[in-house]
Every structure is written in C-alpha cells, then in structure tokens.
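Structure tokens please, single chain.
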Amino acid sequence: MNRKNFIAGLAAMALGLSLVWGTVAEAAVHAPLRYFMEQPGAYTSETPYGNNDKAGHYVQSGDAKIYYEVYGQGKPLFVFHGGGVGSPYEMGQLIDRLRQNYQVIAVSTRGHGRSEIGHTPLTYEQKAQDMLAVMKEVTSEPAVLLGFSDGAYTAYKVASMYPQRVDRLIAIGAGTLKPRYFQGDMRVEDLSKIDPAFIEQQRQIMPEPERYQEFCTNYMNFWSKMEVNGDFLKTIKCPVLLMVGDEDDHAPVATVLEAHQAIPNSRLCVVPKAWHSAFIDNFPVTWAAMQGFLDKDTQDLLPSKKVPYNG
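Here you go.
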C-alpha cells in the first residue's frame, strides 16, 4: 500500500469510529469490563477487577482517595497495574489464580479507575506513599508486591523506601530507565480512536472524568523526567523476580538485565514470544516462573549470585 492510500485508509477509519462513537458510549455503560486493546478471544475474568462494589474500599493518601479491592485469604499480595491506560482488570488472569492461595489486594493507581487524581504534582515518592497508605490499611505484616510496568516501578520505590513492608517483589516489564525515554503527548482523543469502548468505560468509572486529559498530560510530563538507575536499584534488598517479554520495546530486555545486575537479590525470567504484557501474551511461562518464586521460603532466595562475564 502506498503512502497516499495508507493515509486515506486512516482517515476513513477515523470517520467510521466517529460515526459509531455515540453508540459505543451508550453501550460502554452496560458492557462487561475490558482492558485497553483487549483482543477477541483473550482470557477475561468474571470478576470486574477495578470496578467491584462488593470488594471495593477507599483510603485517603495525601490529597486523593485511593481505591482498592480485596480478594481471598492468606499472605497479603498487592497487585499494582500498568500506567496510563492500565487497570486492575488487565491482570485478571493472574488475580484469579493468586486469590486461591493469597489475600490479593488490587490497587487502582492515583488517577486510574476509581482513584482520585488529587491536585499535587505527581512524583515517584507520592506513588509509593499512595501504595503504602493502602498497605497500612490492610496489613501490618511484610507483603508480596506484584507490579506491571508503571506498577513495577512503584513497587521498586516502595521496596526501597519501606523495606520492612516488603517480603518479596515480582516486577514485570520494568528495567533501568533514562529520562525522556517516554515522551510525547497522551491525548484522550487519540486513545478513544484506538479503543473507544475502553476509554468510555474509564470515563464512567472515574470520579472526575472532566480531568481525564489533564491527568494524561501531567502523567506524561512525570514519565518524561523519570529515571531509574543502578544506584537506586541497589537499595532494593528483598528478593525480586524480574520478568520481561523477549519482544518488549517499553522495557527492553537489555534494560531489565541491567536491573537484574544491580538488584542484589534478583532473579530473571525472559518470557519467550511475548511483548510488554508478557503475562497476557504468554501466561503459562509467566505463571510457572511466578509460582516457583512465590513458593520458595525467603531464605532460599538469598543470596542471588551475579556472574557478569565469563572472561
């Protein structure tokens, strides 16, 4: 297809989306929960994680109420979803499995889903403090943290700032990060063209939908300045399982390997034939690696031997 036809095709697609927008907006209110760019035939949980009145709670953190849900019984395990267009529901298959043996606490990050945005600038420390507020509300014992992408970076910060609160950590799609690796605009209008049903669903869930674009703008401003380096990662002392898809272009394998070398007690799993959302793209491998890590006693995971080169 030449450039002219390609552009014409995009224009036609945008027109078609705009014509059905009203129908999509009306249907989204009553549609089953979905995650961003959910593919036909993908695993979907029967539990509406992130929008479940039966399991939902709020805790005040600074100037925002943070929403979370609690499922199951056992050792507390906190789930931190991805950022921007992330939601607890995207991690539904993992939560469905984990809640059989753990008390799973699925948190909606500030500005996502039912959690408020607040009015103070978004910072790495603030994200960790939001999660700590939830953790304090639920348990006083060291917990397991499971984070994906933005949620994994938040889990890193929690483990660094509040080590007594973390037993072990699973990070999916989060390596070293240089400023301006993530940059550019995140426009709600553009996201609506990609997945109109999801964006309308989020508008229905959000406590302040009129601030959706404001949040997206501030969120990308925060991420464009974000830096995660080896010196910081060395401060994380708990056992860590790093997981990354071999085709991840958000957290490339090389950056996750750097994180693995920096974190003193880390293990590494590269998930084959998987993108950033490795737990969706190749669930069997992701789950098998997680199970092995979770089932071990903490002392069996320490120390983690690092061999940099064979020369």
